[in-house]
Amino acid sequence: MKKTLKKIWVVLITALSIAAVGGILLILYRGFGNLGKIIERGELRRKNPAQADAEFYRELLKRNRPPEIDRIEMAIICLQNADVDNRAFCAKELGWSRDTRAVVPLIAALDDEHSDVRRAAAEALGNIAEALGTDDRVVKPLLVKLDDISPDVRKAALCALGNMGANGLTASLVVLTVDDDSGVRREAMRILGKFRNKRDLELVIEILTNALKDESTLVRWNTVRALGELGVRGNERVVEPLNLALKDNSPAVRKAAAEALYTIKDIKQ
Question: Is the domain of 96 the same as that of 179?
Answer without folding.
Answer: no
